[in-house]
Design goal:
mainly alpha
């Protein structure tokens, strides 16, 4: 039971470590995603600032030269279109990066869950194997103890028979001794009586 309890404790500690590692990996991935979003927002802000500066410069030029307004407007429209296209491509790139990061994280989480499930199943199989082996050893020990007890009882019965035989022999010897002593006493009494008669 101690080995099973120790194995279950080790398994619980391993599960806690796996959960903690998975939590750290998730926090790290979320941090990277947040950093990517923040970097994208910073780039957007910089591009908006650059675009604003360009627009202000163009407006200043429009104020200085009314005669070139049409050309400047056309150029500004073109620059705005280019700026929108640059901004669109940057946004699409960042969205693609974010989606790829999320997809990678999802695959990593799925693989971690599958690996964790396999490890848990393996540990449960090991625990069941240990329990069955322990039960088999207990059954074998009980069988061995039962046979030893039966052998001891048989030896005890043989010893009792031997003791009973010894006691019976001793009783017989005591009876013979009492009979010899009785005959000797009777002979002594007869001899004493014969001596008295002669006296």
């Amino acid at each position: 039971m101690d080995s099973i309890r120790s194995l279950m404790d080790n398994h619980s500690a391993k599960l806690a470590e796996d959960r903690e590692s998975l939590g750290r990996n998730l926090e790290s991935d979320l941090s990277r995603i947040g950093q990517a979003v923040q970097d994208h927002a910073s780039r957007l802000a910089e591009e908006r600032s650059l675009l604003s500066q360009t627009l202000e410069s163009d407006l200043a030029k429009l104020a200085e030269s009314r005669s070139s307004i049409d050309g400047l407007v056309a150029g500004q429209v073109e620059k705005l279109a280019e700026g929108r296209d640059i901004l669109r491509r940057a946004l699409e790139s960042d969205l693609t990066t974010i989606q790829s990061t999320i997809a990678d994280q999802s695959r990593s989480l799925t693989e971690d869950r599958a690996q964790f499930a396999r490890a848990l199943e393996e540990d449960l199989r090991n625990v069941n194997t240990l329990v069955h082996e322990h039960m088999d050893r207990l059954a074998a020990d009980r069988s061995t103890l039962s046979r030893a007890l039966e052998d001891d009882l048989a030896k005890l019965a043989e010893s009792r028979q031997s003791i009973d035989g010894l006691v019976a022999g001793q009783v017989e010897k005591l009876a013979e001794g009492r009979d010899i002593l009785r005959r000797a006493l009777e002979a002594d009494q007869i001899g004493r009586a014969s001596c008295r008669e002669r006296v």
